[in-house]
Amino acid sequence: MEQLLGQFSLGLFILQAVIFVGLVLLLKKFAWKPILDAVNEREEGIKNALQSAEQARQEMANLKSDNEKLLADARAERDTLLKEAREIKEKMINDAKADAQAQGEKMIAQAKAAIEGEKNAAMAELKSQVSALSLEIAEKLLRDELSNKEAQSKLVEKMLGDSKLN
Amino acid sequence: MVISRKPSHFIVAALLAFMPLLSFANDNHGAHTQTTASQEATTAMGKGHEGDHSSEGDQTLTEEEKKVKEREEFIQHHLLDSHDFTLFSYGNGHHVGFSLPVILWDNGLHIFSSSKFEHETAVAESNGNFYKIVHGQIFKTDAKGTIEYEGHHPTNKKPLDLSITKNVFMILVVAFLMFVLFRSLANSYKKNNGIASGVGRFFEPIILFIRDDIAIPNIGEKHYKKYMSHLLTVFFFIWFLNMFGLTPLGVNVTNNIAITAALAILTYLITTFTANKNYWGHIFWMPGVPVPMKIILAPIELLGTLIKPFSLTVRLYANMLAGHVVLMSIIAMMYTFNNMIGSSLSFVLAFALSILEVLVAGLQAYIFTMLTALYFGAAKEEHHHDDHH
């Protein structure tokens, strides 16, 4: 220990301290600060580049999924359009069929009604004619009766014979 | 304590960091050998500090014992700071290296070249004052260079020594190197569109490691930025100096206690001056414990704040010192054995140890930075910590 202290040189200690502090300050200004700044800047640059690359990748993936979604949507829309068209077509056919049927039925019903009307009219006329004829016959019979019995019966027979012909 | 959330990162970074430096370790090894060899070739090193008190004992020693003692002194001398940069010595007092300026404050400024000391042997004169170096330290003396001893230690007056010693020179070299290196890295970002180029590619992961695995986990996302400059500088400063210590240049900065103490005290000062209320609350009035315990804990906690930088100082100093001593001792053993088996065995051992030292160099820098960050983190800890008590 004594030898250790004996060797200790105060001058060397002072010079070392002064030179070292000077070196620290000098290097700080001319070396360490620019070096660390440059390295930091570079690291930031690398970090940013990686980040933006990752972002771009993400965007690409998003874009791709968007595209797929769009495609799928388009396909689905086409399908629904086709389906709708088919449905419309069928509906149109069915409607047309139903219309035609309804029209036909209506026409038939009208025809039937007309026929019925004609028939009823004919029947009514026939009835009126029959009653007129009957009245005529009855008139004639009554006249004949008043004149000739024989002739009356003959007339009746003849009348009946006529009506049969009718 | 979170040492690392990503241990694999650390391991990879450590491996990468040390790979290119393995060749250094080998060189280092060879050069130490060379240095020791040149010492072996000569009997006189011309070392002033051997001085009068050691030479009289030498006559009674055998040749072999003298050599062993010489190696021991060489190792001890190597571990001290010195006023000139000697790469190696050979022959009778021939030194290869260069002189450094000596700056003393002794009732006025004295500046002169360390060549005046003639490798710690001569008395240097400056403005009428005389100085002599004993054990790497400058003492005031008279024209004849009289040094008075008390036991082993000189009692002469010591002037304030602000010389550019070998350690200060290496600190300046490393500071310059770091400035150029990291300035070029900082500039390369601008030129190269935010990507490091050149040698910065090697250091950038280490900077990021310190940020992501030392600063952020220990200090927290919110406050770490303020401390980054200190942590980065401390790490690279210690690491580079440790690595220089393994080169054959004979640099030994981080195993000088004045250096590690200065670093640790800076850590302490930053911790103390940036600490929040919560930190002081934990020291003086520990929440969640009974009042008598609070009173007992306060001085212990206060002492703890001082022990922390002290442990930082000693850990780095002792680790690097021990590494150097052991490595050089094993290299010196090669000459002590002086036979095929023993010498080659210590060569292999020294080689393995050199590689280990490369790891230790990085590890100690990491541990120092890690603990510094941990103390900063404690100073900035938020109040929510109280809930756990």
From TrEMBL, chain A:
Record carries keyword Membrane: yes
Matching InterPro entries: ATP_synth_B-like_membr_sf (IPR028987), ATP_synth_b/b'su_bac/chlpt (IPR002146), ATP_synth_F0_bsu_bac (IPR005864), ATP_synthase_B_chain (IPR050059)
UniProt KW keywords: ATP synthesis, Cell membrane, CF(0), Coiled coil, Hydrogen ion transport, Ion transport, Membrane, Transmembrane, Transmembrane helix, Transport
Entry superkingdom: Bacteria
Compartments where found: Cell membrane; Endomembrane system
Coiled-coil intervals, chain numbering: 36-91
A cellular-component GO term for this protein: plasma membrane
GO molecular function: proton-transporting ATP synthase activity, rotational mechanism; proton-transporting ATPase activity, rotational mechanism
Main localization of the protein described in the UniProt heading: membrane
Transmembrane regions: 6-27
Membrane topology: Single-pass membrane protein
Family: Belongs to the ATPase B chain family.
NCBIfam families in alphabetical order: ATP_synt_b, PRK14471.1
Alphabetical list of HAMAP family matching this protein: ATP_synth_b_bprime (MF_01398)
Assembly mode: F-type ATPases have 2 components, F(1) - the catalytic core - and F(0) - the membrane proton channel. F(1) has five subunits: alpha(3), beta(3), gamma(1), delta(1), epsilon(1). F(0) has three main subunits: a(1), b(2) and c(10-14). The alpha and beta chains form an alternating ring which encloses part of the gamma chain. F(1) is attached to F(0) by a central stalk formed by the gamma and epsilon chains, while a peripheral stalk is formed by the delta and b chains. F-type ATPases have 2 components, F(1) - the catalytic core - and F(0) - the membrane proton channel. F(1) has five subunits: alpha(3), beta(3), gamma(1), delta(1), epsilon(1). F(0) has four main subunits: a(1), b(2) and c(10-14). The alpha and beta chains form an alternating ring which encloses part of the gamma chain. F(1) is attached to F(0) by a central stalk formed by the gamma and epsilon chains, while a peripheral stalk is formed by the delta and b chains.
PANTHER family noted in UniProt: ATP SYNTHASE SUBUNIT B, ATP SYNTHASE SUBUNIT B', CHLOROPLASTIC
Cited function: Component of the F(0) channel, it forms part of the peripheral stalk, linking F(1) to F(0). The b'-subunit is a diverged and duplicated form of b found in plants and photosynthetic bacteria. F(1)F(0) ATP synthase produces ATP from ADP in the presence of a proton or sodium gradient. F-type ATPases consist of two structural domains, F(1) containing the extramembraneous catalytic core and F(0) containing the membrane proton channel, linked together by a central stalk and a peripheral stalk. During catalysis, ATP synthesis in the catalytic domain of F(1) is coupled via a rotary mechanism of the central stalk subunits to proton translocation.
Protein name (Swiss-Prot/TrEMBL): ATP synthase subunit b
Biological source species: Flavobacterium fontis
Protein encoded by which gene: atpF
Automatic annotation (TrEMBL), chain B:
Localization, UniProt: Cell membrane; Membrane
Topological category with respect to the lipid bilayer: Multi-pass membrane protein
Biased composition (Basic and acidic residues): 47-56
Entry keyword set: ATP synthesis, Cell membrane, CF(0), Hydrogen ion transport, Ion transport, Membrane, Signal, Transmembrane, Transmembrane helix, Transport
GO molecular function, one term: proton-transporting ATP synthase activity, rotational mechanism
Transmembrane segments: 168-186, 231-251, 257-276, 283-304, 316-335, 347-367
Signal peptide: 1-25
GO cellular component terms given for this protein: plasma membrane; proton-transporting ATP synthase complex
Pfam families in alphabetical order: ATP-synt_A
Domain of life, source organism: Bacteria
CDD domains in the cross-refs: ATP-synt_Fo_a_6
Region (Disordered): 32-68
Compositional bias annotation for Low complexity: 32-44
InterPro entries: ATP_synth_F0_asu, ATP_synth_F0_asu_AS, ATP_synth_F0_asu_bact/mt, F0_ATP_A_sf
Function statement: Key component of the proton channel; it plays a direct role in the translocation of protons across the membrane.
Family affiliation: Belongs to the ATPase A chain family.
Protein name: ATP synthase subunit a
